[in-house]
Design a protein that fits this description.
single chain; 136 residues; alpha+beta; globular
Length: 136
């Protein structure tokens, strides 16, 4: 593994995540935030025999409800990143389940994340309003 990582380092940064079988079995859920407020959640499921949930690997996406506890975990992540200063304009927090079924933060996307606005046009309008308000 170390050899493989070292071979990738000249190409740029490398991110390593532990494999969680729950991602392959039940997928992951993205909590989307606009202007510091939760707007919607998207459940991402890998195709049969695959562990990656991205569409280019056959993954599918759908809107989903998210339990208040999971929203709180995702929100705590964005709050920690803004450090009490400016509100983040947008964020996507990907939640996965650990081996006991408890939600974990898999990653937080702040640079060019897919915010799945095609699944939630209302969230896209909120983003446009947030941008408009900050340009004034």
């Amino acid at each position: 593994v170390r050899e493989h990582i070292e071979s990738l380092l000249p190409l740029g940064e490398v991110m390593i995540q532990p494999f969680l079988k729950s991602v392959a079995e039940v997928g992951e859920t993205s909590a989307i935030f606009v202007g510091g407020h939760f707007t919607h959640a998207v459940h991402k499921v890998a195709m049969e025999g695959e562990f990656r949930v991205q569409a280019e690997f056959g993954g599918t996406y759908s809107l989903t409800d998210l339990h208040a506890h999971s929203i709180g975990i995702a929100e705590a992540s964005t709050d920690a990143l803004s450090d009490g200063h400016d509100t983040l304009a947008y964020a996507r927090v990907d939640l996965v389940l650990d081996d006991e079924g408890a939600p974990l933060v898999g990653e937080v996307e702040l640079v060019e994340p897919d915010l799945f606005f095609s699944l939630s046009p209302d969230a896209a309008r909120k983003m446009a309003g947030y941008i408009s308000a900050h340009l004034r």
